[in-house]
Amino acid sequence: MVRGGGRAAVLVLCTLCAGVAQSCGRDEMRPAPRELRINLETEPPSLDWSLATDGISIIAIQQLMRGLTRLSRDLRPEPDLAERWSVSADGRTYTFALRPGVVWSDGEPLRAQQFVDSWLRLLAPETAAEYAYFLFPLKNARAFNAGTITDPGAVGVRARDDATLEVELEAPLVYFPALVNFMVTFPQRRELIERYGERWTEPPNLVTLGPFTLEEWRHEYRLVLRANPRYWAGRPALDRITAYMVEEDSTALVLFEQGLLDLVKLPPLEIRRYRERPEYLRQPLLRGYYYGFDLRTPPFDDARVRRAFAHAIDRAEFPPLLQGGEQPWPSWIPPGMPHANPQLGLAFDPERARALLREAGVDPATLAPVRIVFNSDQTHKLVAEKVQAMWREHLGVRVELENREWKVFLKELATNPPPVFRLGWGADFPDPDNFMNLFTSYSENNHTGFANPHYDALVLRAASEVDPATRQSLYDEAQRILCEQDVPIVPLFVTASNFAVARRVHGFVPSPMDLYFFDRVSAE
Amino acid sequence: MIRYAAGRVLAGVPVLWVVATLTFALLRFLPGGPFDKEKTLPPEILRNLERRYALDGTLAEQYADYLGRLVRGDLGPSYKYVGRDVSDILADALPVSVELGLLALAIALGGGIALGLAAGTRRDSALDRIVGIATLVGVSAPSFVIGAGLILGVGLELDWLPAGLWEGPRYAILPALTLAALPLAYIAQLTRAQVITVMHQDYVRTARAKGVPEGRVRRHHVLRNALLAVLTYFGPLLAILLTGSFVVEKIYAIPGLGRFFVTAVTNRDYPLVLGVTLVYAALVVAANLAVDLLYAWLDPRIRVGGAER
Questions:
Q1: E-strand spans in A88-169?
Q2: Complex ipTM above 0.90?
Q3: The pTM is what?
Q4: Which of residues 17-56 of B touch A (CB under 8 A)?
């Protein structure tokens, strides 16, 4: 008799079932031919290559634009928009000859002045570009950015003619051709930026010259890129790239397994399950992971104590713990980077560690607990717990772990660094200077309080040293100070990216700089 | 009635001001700023940024500037999403959240009332017990657990529905069900309890004695009175749908407003946090107002105007 409620319930269930049943038509879930669907993870904060600073924006911008040089597989700068370049005898002036016949997606030809416009915009104080410092090596660039010089003509970049760009540096810089592969040095169309204002990066306003153009930008959801028929090196094999922004890596993996995405980064816990599958791809990165000491806090004001703590870490324990393709590495310049040296750094040696601690007069039994602070994250927690266990076992010291939310952690590093902290560093350009510069006394990224004039001098000299053998010996000496003698940091390992790539996709080759280029990728 | 409504709307303004001020103060109290990065910025670049975003004044100046712009309806630029205003972001994201929220609301109301009525009118039957257990699970399981279960079960294992993205009606089913689970279960429990109470009221007995058909009794006497309780729950229900959307939009990769609530705070994107908070506060204030007006309209025992209830 009681039908009212019962009938309604049945109705609701039926509606739901109908929704599910209707799902049998799965056509919309299939990719178009020659379409690549990737996961960008989050919204790119900006597609303006003077203002973007993060890895996500870089991935998108690299498909849309090109620079003077591009990096080869072994990370050497090769001609791209510059057909060739030369450097003056004193190493301060670079001259780039632009490739003829390059046009923007609206048909306008590429001109040297477009580089000048872009670089001056990057450096102008009112642009407030975070990455303006990439061009600080240019003559007067830093002063122009600080506002102490207001004449843009004084900055060391000019177009000698439409096809020739001339750059004048403050001091010789051997890696300058590698620097101009980075997005902040890409050319810009000043007249379009002036016409559209802040919306110049929105489609259809955005005009680019790379293998793809921007067709759609649905914020927080997806980017759609189209093959650029005017691309100077020829139309790419893909017609279209759809880059979704799926933040949850586990959701992205289910979408990959449902065939809705072709390329995703694997969550750490899933790597073991994927390792033997043909879809699995691993790429070691130029990204170091280290523990830093605050040299102003006892007992870490004594180099012997820091060496003792470094000797008490067995790096071989990290790869099986983390499972992400980490490679133990006891020195600072990562493997794959020119001038890296596997012979340097302090190895695991508990005997020596205890002896050093005794020598320094530190009694582990009476030593106050050592504080390790890291930003809240599963991987960082695992590493910290492992280090805690190793220091307790091999040195007999008590260790306390504290985690902080990311921005709180960064604030603390800048204002009141903890005795021991974790950090990482990824390469912006493939030159050791990018890593070694970090621990100079004048670096904003040196949170340890380490200041060694000899180290500073070595790093400064190496940046302008042309001879590879001399450069190697300079970096070796600097690394010995950093990782064996003064030890403000203990490099632990370098990290890797782990991907799942659909079998319909061919030719995807990630780079050790965590960059992706899809111009040579094809999809069935 | 109109005077009452206008008064209530005006009373919402100080509420929003308090929310805006508290959020402003709490954000600045939080250590770490929008431009603290893994790669520390040189001081001259930091100064340029602070000038660009008017963060170089005193806190009082910044607050005055912020309130002044708020009054003019300008929510300011996002610090994280360069070149986008907070109002652009809200205009893009809010409709998506509203769509998802309305869908979940419909499922929660339809399913919850139907199940509650079915269980309440058949007290202690097998159906009642099943509904009892199911609603208990729905009320107590957090939405990320239900979401993960649906993604893995219906998405990955059965492969019936996409486990994420926002491409059309089929893509909305799993997130809407996840979002609706908690309020649906609660509404079912509420309806069942009300139905059981109302079934023993004199006017129901009278109706039956008069020979009114059972179906009509249920529709006109039992259901209508039981629904008043559900209506009271409308304000909290909206709050649940809004807060639930933080999690649901993130795990299903839906371009709504909820995900900003968390990411804008971790990015210290002050204007965006303030914008999102104000929108949600305004929604809750509006919902409560709507409930009160509806209630007054449905139940003449509640007096409006003159002496307040």
A1: 93-98, 157-161, 164-168
A2: no
A3: 0.86
A4: 30-33, 35-45, 47-49, 51-53
